[in-house]
Design a protein that fits this description.
The chain is mostly helical. The N and C termini lie far apart (about 115 Å). The chain contains one helix and no strands.
């Protein structure tokens, strides 16, 4: 019967070994995904910064366009 228990212990050790290896793989994949997530977060922040700059430029151009329209209308009314 002690031989049976020794076999059980060996099986458990083998399973624990496999589970530990699987856990290491999961941890590695988690770290890889964290790096990817960090890179994507950086890219998103950069894209938002550029988008906000583009919005500001467009708003300035829109204001300038309105001023030019008013001037043009003034010239037309003056003629």
């Amino acid at each position: 019967m002690s031989e049976y228990k020794a076999t059980d212990v060996e099986l458990l050790k083998e399973r624990i070994s496999r589970l530990m290896a699987a856990l290491e793989e999961v941890n590695f994949e988690c770290q890889r995904l964290e790096i990817i997530n960090s890179n994507l977060d950086f890219q998103l922040k950069e894209a938002n910064r550029e988008l906000n700059q583009n919005i500001a430029v467009l708003q300035a151009l829109e204001e300038e366009n309105e001023e030019l329209k008013k001037k043009l209308q003034g010239y037309k009314n003056g003629i």
